[in-house]
Design a protein that fits this description.
Elements (H helix, E strand, L loop, with lengths): L1 H27 L6 H28 L1 H10 L4 H27 L8 H36 L5
Helix pairs in contact: 1-2, 1-5, 2-4, 3-5, 4-5
């Protein structure tokens, strides 16, 4: 069960990143025909990032303590001391932007160029911070794997 929980939060994050790219492309080509897709995409992004936050928070508070100690005692303690500590804070940038996205996508992007640019800027920032979080997560997982390897393996 814990393995399933461990994989849910990055999966939700990746889906949120992909949905952000989708909203960006829809906003780039905003018209009356894709207005509902843009709105739906904004909501999907927000839901994916809320799910990421909820599952990651549950994992972190319930199970990560053991891995944290292993990483800190392992060969690359900076996987936690830098990457996890940083990720814990900058993830909220993407979360807040994702929660803002449904509001900006409610505007008429086909007629409002500033709203269209705002949507594209917000989705770009979500993608960039999301990819950074995914990369940090990979380094943290690597730190766990190295910490649990037998010496000399």
């Amino acid at each position: 069960m814990t393995d399933v929980l461990l994989f849910i939060h990055p999966t939700a994050g990746v889906l949120g990143i992909l949905a952000s790219v989708w909203v960006f492309v829809e906003a780039l080509n905003a018209s009356e025909a894709n207005r509902s897709r843009i709105r739906s995409g904004g909501i999907i992004v927000a839901l994916c990032f809320v799910a990421t936050w909820a599952f990651a928070g549950y994992w972190y508070t319930s199970f990560y303590g053991v891995d944290k100690q292993a990483i800190l005692g392992g060969p690359i303690p900076w996987a936690h001391s830098f990457f996890m500590e940083t990720k814990e804070h900058y993830f909220f940038i993407a979360l807040f932007l994702a929660l803002y996205l449904p509001f900006v996508t409610r505007l008429d992007l086909a007629r409002n160029g500033q709203a269209r640019l705002m949507t594209m800027a917000v989705t770009t920032l979500i993608v960039l911070t999301g990819l950074c979080a995914e990369g940090a997560g990979a380094l943290i997982s690597f730190g766990v794997r190295l910490a649990y390897q037998p010496a000399g393996a």
